[in-house]
Design a protein that fits this description.
It is found in: Membrane. With 519 residues, this protein is mostly helical. The protein is built from 23 helices and three strands. It has a single domain, classed as Sodium/glucose cotransporter (Up-down Bundle), CATH 1.20.1730.10. The longest helix is centred in the middle third of the chain and has 40 residues. The protein starts with a helix and ends with a helix.
């Protein structure tokens, strides 16, 4: 019966993907749901994309081994969403772009987009791969499939509904997944396991103090979670791409804040379920096995199927969102800018400089100048330059939806291959998060709050932060907490020294940035 419930859920996801197909008419619909999500849809989709397998399966496992303080992993994710929504999301939403790397180019000028895009693509692939491995494990347990078939079937479903309607399909499926997660975790699993363990008062009185303390894991571990997950959530492409879907700065702020609060409650719920599981299924050695074990021990097949569907919902929503993020960045920030450099437009044609770009943007549905954020490489001197290299932040190909689907499918296949062959996805995920935070956090934050930052500072910060992190991980081990500390310090030093040692960002770039951010 639990398998039947999951099969119905998977069929529904494909159905919502088909529905999204009819809403995706152009690139803006496919990549950012037309930038018109209201508060309810936005809150649901933001919650679903950040609460994946690590938050659900991992959160319960940490509650099992560490007690109440096991909530800090998911709590750090919630804090990141709250901070992003209150302080930065309204400003980000106004940019009307598609990727984090495009923000760097708009703010600092050309030069950093390829490197930052490569880091973001790797990060998205690792998040998607980790989620794929997680839900493949559930498929194996439910249907007795081997790893290869579990990955192919589960991953195939995610690729299918994501490819059909892009962000519209993902938004619709994410909202349903958010609904299922809420019912499965908060309304079924949490009350049942607390009741079966004797109630919350009995549970807390029977556990050692280290398991009932909110800081039992220690401040060093808590700081590590905050540095990796809170800072990572502030700059992740998968998160920013959801901010771009909001129809207004107000939706981006308060819808995101609501999602962050939901994450904080989810963190506490997962820890409490894990604590209760120590009484229901004691003696489990592998913490990731706790979730399924406590479901089997405390629920009938129908309720168990709903809860397992909730776990699958968490994993698949994160996988689809991360896959969309990786394919968007790969196309828009790595491949297409290279191809776009072939377009040369004489100054005398259709007006010089920025006017020519604006006219081109209007001729292509407005995406080049506003949604895609056109920019001009090169300059027009007082005596007049002979030609200007026009580089739209998104090269117009005539069928952007088709092209976006192709990139999503290709990177989806890469994700499936990685999920089948990668020996340790946890190590890969740790490397991706460390490189993301150490390499990009300072340049991105600096672009939003520090006026003197320059492209030289960005490149110095990215390179020093990433290299320092890699060296420390090689010397001290992948899980060394000093890797992220030293990487952030090196990135900050490189960013500040490079910025102050170089000429300020050109006035025309800063003027265009201010106009866009203040509109």
């Amino acid at each position: 019966m639990d398998s039947l419930v999951v099969i119905i859920y998977l069929a529904a996801m494909v159905g919502f993907g088909v529905w999204g197909r009819f809403k995706a008419h152009n690139q803006e619909d496919f990549l950012v749901a037309g930038r018109r999500l209201g508060g309810l849809l936005y809150t649901g989709t933001m919650s679903a994309v950040v609460l994946g397998g690590a938050s659900t399966i991992g959160g319960v496992g940490l509650g099992y081994t560490a007690g109440l303080s096991g909530m800090w992993l998911v709590l750090s994710i919630g804090l990141g969403i709250v901070a992003l929504s209150l302080f930065f999301a309204p400003k980000i939403q106004k940019l009307e772009i598609y990727t984090v790397s495009q923000m760097l180019e708009l703010r600092y000028g050309k030069g950093s987009r390829f490197v930052s895009g490569a880091i973001m693509t790797a990060y998205g692939l690792m998040i998607s791969t980790t989620s794929t491995v997680a839900y493949a494990t559930v498929f194996h347990a439910l249907f007795d499939l081997n790893k290869v078939w579990s990955v192919l079937i589960g991953g195939g479903i995610v690729i299918l509904y994501s490819m059909l309607g892009g962000m519209w399909s993902i938004t619709l499926t994410d909202f349903v997944q958010f609904f299922i997660q809420t019912i499965g975790i908060f309304l079924i699993m949490l009350p049942l396991v607390l009741s079966k363990s004797g109630g919350i008062s009995e549970l807390f009185s029977s556990l050692p103090e280290s398991h009932t303390s909110p800081v039992g894991i220690g401040w060093q571990a808590i700081l590590g979670y905050i540095l990796i997950y809170t800072l990572g959530l502030l700059i992740g492409q998968d998160i920013w791409q959801r901010v771009f879907t909001a129809r207004s700065p107000g939706v981006a702020r308060w819808g995101g804040f609501s999602a962050g609060v939901y994450c904080l409650l989810y963190a506490v719920a997962g820890a409490l379920i894990g604590m209760a599981a120590t009484k229901i299924v004691p003696g489990i050695e592998v913490q990731d096995d706790v979730f399924v074990a406590v479901v089997d021990a405390s629920m009938n097949p129908v309720l168990g199927g709903i809860v397992l569907a909730a776990a699958l919902a968490a994993m698949m929503s994160t996988a689809s969102g991360s896959l969309m993020a990786a394919s968007t960045v790969c196309r828009q920030d790595i491949v297409e800018p290279i191809l776009a450099r072939k377009d040369i437009v004489p100054d005398s044609v259709g007006g010089a400089g920025m006017d020519g770009v604006a006219a081109d943007g209007a001729a292509t549905g407005g995406s080049a100048a506003s949604a895609s954020g056109s920019s001009v490489s090169g300059s027009v001197s007082g005596s007049g330059a002979k030609s200007t290299l026009v580089r739209s932040l998104v090269r117009e190909t005539g069928d952007e939806v088709r092209d976006s689907r192709i990139y999503l499918i290709v990177l989806g296949v890469v994700t499936l291959v990685l999920a089948m062959i990668m020996p340790s996805v946890v190590e890969a995920l740790t490397v991706a998060y460390n490189l993301l935070v150490a390499g990009l956090f300072i340049p991105i934050l600096g672009g939003l709050v520090f006026k003197r930052g320059t492209i030289v500072g960005v490149m110095a910060g990215m390179i020093l932060g990433a290299v320092t992190t890699v060296v420390v991980m090689i010397v001290s081990g992948i899980y060394a907490e000093s890797a992220i500390y030293l990487g952030l310090i090196a990135s900050l030093v490189g960013y500040l020294v490079g910025s102050f040692a170089s000429k300020p960002t050109p006035p025309e770039v800063m003027t265009a940035w201010k106009e866009r951010i203040n509109r």
